[in-house]
Amino acid sequence: MLAMDYRGPKRVRAVQKPMPEIRHPQDAIVRVLRACICGSDLHLYNGNVPDTRVGSTFGHEFVGEIVDIGADVTKVKVGDRVIVPFNIACGECHFCRQEMYGNCQESNTESGAIGGIYGYSHTAGGFNGGQAEYARVPYANVGPVIIPADMDLDDAVMLTDVIPTGYQGAEMAGIQTGDTVVVFGAGPIGIVAARCAWLFGAGRVIIIDKEDYRLDFARNYSYCEAYNFQEIGDPVVFIKKITDWMGADCVIDAVGAEAEGNTLQTITGRKLLQQAGSATALHWAINAVKKGGVVSIVGVYGPTDNLIPIGNAMNKGLTLRGNQTSVKRLLPRLIEHVQNGVLDPKALITHRLPLEEVADGYRMFSNKLDNCIKTVLMPPTANQ
Amino acid sequence: MKDNAINTPIDPKTIKGWGIDADPKNDPTYPMRKRMNAGEDPTPKRRPDNLQPVNVEVLKSIERPKVSAVFGTPAPPSGLSGMIRRQAFKYSENQYKHWLPLIVADRVNVVEGVVTDLFQGKLPNIWAEKGYGMEWKHNRTAFVTKMATIGAVTAGLVVWLSSGKKKKKSEFKAKDYLSRF
To answer: Hey, where are the domains in chain B?
Structure first.
């Protein structure tokens, strides 16, 4: 089968690889119908996640059709078309039973901090991902959700990560009616977080980024104010000014390790890898939120350390919340939102490339070429 | 671990005032709505019925007791990078001795990947693998400028370094210590 193949920082290709096999009675094999490149894939692509092995296949956002199942699989059958949440979750451990499907204890041997994630390095379990024609899906009784008959596959693939993560970013911000919410990062997750902030009753939503085309997109898609941090001076002072010098009630970090805007953070975090990525957005979030406010972190950082003003967080009495998204928990509600027209996931898709051109897709998304917001990869078998 | 002998567990309910100000609504872990602690969980160590057979090498974090019920099998540790990874997994995720060797192993693994390609008679197509075609199509001026700058800096460094060697050699020849006396 054709699959994406990681060769080193900023080097990927599509090659023929062996078909995935059933290795556990709850496994299923899925024929991939759509796969996306996620912003967090760029951390792998740039070589910033430890234990990313050459020969790995990335891709944690994919939907597909089940073509084979293990002996114990009862909840889905061959022929079902399914949304595959990006987290691999057993559904039985202490954490899964609290609906913390992003924190499963039985899907990752190689780290105590993170559950298994498809195609996200051996630090996240060493599973191959869905940027391929076929993928192994463990715990098929737990993760996959059957795609409703009336749902577009493009909408479905956005429900594997980007929509739930943006939604959970807003949910974790603890937004109260009328709150001012600031979102750092107008990538796909930030755009969705800004849109979802309204669902929780926000009174004002502001998004900050440096790419004008993304800010324009956010203004239209998320109905929010959008500002370019290269044009507003110090973004923290700017936010204080426009909030009567109070700061925002809630701030969402939807950037993570690839942040720009602070030379020290960029050099130490992204170039020299002396931090677990550049923590510029988190730094701004802590300083821009009001005293007693909430900072919600959905931007992904590496597993080591970051320079952030933790003293200010303590002095301001902040609540910091973050987690990998519990996609399975959120899917019923989000499917409802899509079916009722409250959310329009596929409007985020700006590019569609054949899997054979995966290297071009990564380059385009990474360097924000051709006004790229979200790229979908189409495996050759997707149209069979 | 020997100090554990003096750390006798205590039943918190025996402590005067335990729980008198407990307020279940004051839960900072929202939106975790099904929160329970290990004591409330009747089977906190419950595992799936079936465990994936361990028939490839899996490196296990020392922060967990057993191999997880499922795990990824692609790219098991091998070669020099594998040796470095095995050493890294002797330390917990709390230590740089775990993460920094893994980053080094990743870079070694890249070289191993190129060598493997060459042994298989495959010359890596760097232009295609790096997606430079997209840069050429959508960002040509900046891309050409960047490449030209990298090329010029590299050429300059090569010229500078090679001229330095010649200079040193000629300086060395100019000093004829034997004939001075």
So the answer is: 56-124, 125-169
Residue whose structure tokens are 């005032």: B17
State which CATH number among 1.10.3720.10, 3.40.50.300, 3.40.50.920, 3.40.50.720 fits the domain covering A165-322. Answer: 3.40.50.720
Cross-strand partners of A37: A375
DSSP letter string, B79-148: HHHHHHHHHHTTS-TTSHHHHHHHHHHHHHHHHHHHHHHHHTT----HHHHTTHHHHHHHSHHHHHHHHH
Sequence-distant (≥ 6) Cβ neighbours of residue A186 within 8 angstroms: A194, A207, A208, A209, A211, A214, A215, A217, A218, A226
Q: Would you say A378 and A34 are in contact if contact means Cβ atoms under 8 Å apart?
A: yes
Nearest to A291 by CA among A324, A317, A258: A317
Task: Please answer whether residues A115 and A10 qualify as being in contact, where contact means their C-beta atoms are separated by less than 8 angstroms.
Answer: no
Angle between helices B96-119 and B79-88 (to 10 degrees): 170
- Chain A touched by B110 (CB under 8 Å): yes
Portions of chain A given CATH number 3.40.50.720: 165-322
User: A343-383 pLDDT, tens per residue?
Assistant: 999 999 999 999 999 999 999 999 999 999 999 999 998 87
CATH number of A2-161+326-383: 3.90.180.10
With a cut of 90, say whether residue A250 has pLDDT above it.
Answer: yes
Model-level ipTM above the cut of 0.85:
no
Cα(A38)–Cα(A359) distance, integer angstroms: 14
Residue range(s) of every CATH 3.90.180.10 domain in chain A: 2-161+326-383
H-type helices in A223-279, by residue range? 235-242, 263-265
A42 burial (CB, 10 Å; 0-12 / 13-18 / 19+) is buried
Interface-testing mutation among B108, B134, B138, B150, with chain A (most A C-beta atoms within 10 A): B134
User: 3-42 in B: which are within 8 Å (CB) of A?
Assistant: 28, 30-36, 38, 41
Tokens 């569609």, located at residue: A352
List the structure tokens of A263: 């030379």
Six-digit token string for B104: 């080094």
* CA distances from residue A277 to A11, A88, B119 in whole angstroms, order as listed: 19, 24, 35
Higher pLDDT, B32 or A223: A223
| B63 in Cβ contact with B93 (< 8 Å) | yes
Helix/strand/coil for A29: strand
Phi and psi, residue A321, nearest 5°: -125, 145
Say if residues A176 and A201 touch (Cβ distance below 8 Å): yes
Phi, psi at A81, each rounded to 5°: -100, 125
Q: Which residue, A55, A46, A44, A65, is CA-closest to A13?
A: A55
Q: Which two tokens stand for residue A371?
A: 């006004």
Inter-chain CB proximity A107 and B70 less than 8 Å: yes
CA–CA gap between residue A312 and residue A293 (Å, rounded): 12
- Over 70: is that where the pLDDT of A33 sits? yes
Strands (E), A138-196: 145-146, 180-184
* Residues 6 or more apart in contact with residue A308 via CB below 8 angstroms: A279, A282, A283, A286
Contact B131 A57 (CB under 8 A): no
| Helices vs. strands in chain B: H and E counts, helices first | 5, 0
